């Protein structure tokens, strides 16, 4: 028999979803069979699985340890991974962690094998160290990244430290209650402000995106909207702040390519000759794109105190170096 006490980290979810996270090698059929046979109870009573869990609820599994171990695997070796650089932390409180991610750091594992030095593994290592998260007691919940950046894009990444925060952040990004701004340097002279609209299609085999001005009616095609404002320019380059209205894979990079102003250093969507020049002069090997700041709109719930706040991330050193070199006074 095993008793699981619900805490503030994992409350607010359905019992069946909680059980599928805890028994993460099991199936829905197995979980529902155990509920029907009363081998799993909630607060000592028979449960159906659709109950919403509350703080201090007790879930009891009348199962042998061998059975539980057969249907459960837990990653506990986070301390072997690279520690999170505390200088990268922009904001941290009991609910949320916001990090200024470095270029070249993957947010999640690229394979089913989670044994990598990814950002999320470093984050969990950090949260274990500062006692914000305990792998064994926080059953059915793991801190989660709620907005993703490409491995070679730097900037702000948000992490929910409890389930309620993860749910709210995911909903806020989905319903555009958080404005996302990026900064970049593109090839060629751009001026003013503009709203770009187009149609996004991704080739999953090549991990490459094409954005067209008009719909081609292809399967998987989605409308995208990108806004930009030019902050500095000269005859050869422009410093541009970009606001994502929609958020699709490689959207900024592909949209700027569409209008003939690719991001410097971008090996997939960029200008090969320009990239060579920039690499030789500054050592830049990938796209110069930085998630600069997040603007939280008025909101309710556990994160209501962030309403109206703007969270900003300093540009990486290579960005500042290139900007200074290109836009000399």
Cα-based radius of gyration, to the nearest Å: 23 Å
Separate helix tally: 8
Overall average residue pLDDT: 92
Strand content: 25-35%
- Number-wise, the strands total 15
Calculate the terminal CA-CA distance, rounded to whole Å. Answer: 72 Å
**Biggest sheet, open or closed, and with what strands and sense?**
11 strands, mixed
Low-confidence stretches: none
Instruction: Summarize the helix and strand pattern as letters.
Output: EHHEEEHEEHEEHEEEEEHHEEH
Percent in helix:
10-25%
Shape: elongated
Structural class: alpha+beta
Molecular structure report:
It is built from eight helices and 15 strands. The longest helix has 12 residues, at 163-174. The model has no long low-confidence stretch (mean pLDDT 92). It is of the alpha+beta class and 329 residues long. The chain has helices spanning 15-22, 28-36, 65-70, 119-129, 163-174, 251-258, 272-282, 317-326, and strands spanning 2-5, 40-42, 45-46, 58-61, 89-92, 96-101, 144-145, 154-160, 178-187, 193-203, 208-212, 222-233, 237-244, 289-296, 310-312. Strands 5, 6, 7, 8, 9, 10, 11, 12, 13, 14 and 15 form an eleven-stranded mixed beta sheet that branches. 33% of the residues are buried. A hairpin with a 2-residue loop joins β2 and β3 (45-46).
């Amino acid at each position: 028999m095993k008793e699981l006490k619900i805490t503030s980290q994992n409350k607010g979810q359905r019992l069946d979803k909680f059980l599928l996270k805890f028994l993460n090698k099991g199936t829905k059929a197995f979980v529902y069979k155990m509920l029907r046979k009363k081998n799993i109870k909630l607060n000592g009573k028979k449960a159906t699985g659709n109950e919403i869990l509350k703080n201090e609820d007790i879930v009891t599994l009348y199962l042998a340890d061998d059975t539980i171990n057969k249907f459960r695997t837990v990653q506990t070796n986070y301390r072997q991974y690279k520690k999170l650089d505390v200088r990268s932390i922009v904001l941290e409180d009991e609910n949320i962690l916001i990090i200024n991610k470095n270029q070249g750091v993957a947010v999640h594992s690229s394979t089913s094998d989670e044994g990598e030095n990814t950002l999320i593994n470093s984050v969990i290592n950090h949260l274990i160290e500062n006692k914000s998260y305990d792998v064994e007691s926080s059953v059915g919940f793991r801190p989660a990244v709620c907005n993703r950046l490409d491995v070679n894009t730097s900037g702000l990444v948000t992490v929910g430290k409890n389930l309620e925060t993860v749910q709210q952040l995911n909903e806020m990004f989905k319903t555009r209650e958080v404005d996302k701004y990026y900064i970049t340097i593109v090839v060629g002279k751009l001026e003013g402000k503009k709203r770009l609209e187009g149609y996004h299609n991704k080739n999953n085999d090549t991990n490459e995106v094409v954005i067209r001005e008009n719909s081609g009616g292809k399967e998987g095609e989605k409308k995208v909207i990108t806004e930009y404002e030019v902050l500095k320019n000269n005859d050869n380059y422009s410093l541009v702040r970009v606001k994502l209205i929609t958020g699709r894979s490689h959207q900024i990079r592909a949209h700027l390519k569409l209008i003939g102003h690719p991001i410097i250093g971008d090996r997939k969507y960029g200008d090969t000759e320009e990239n060579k020049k920039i690499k030789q002069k500054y050592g830049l090997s990938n796209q110069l794109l930085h998630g600069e700041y997040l603007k939280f709109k008025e909101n309710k719930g556990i994160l209501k105190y962030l309403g109206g706040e703007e969270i900003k991330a300093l540009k990486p050193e290579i960005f500042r170096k290139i900007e200074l070199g290109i836009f000399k006074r």
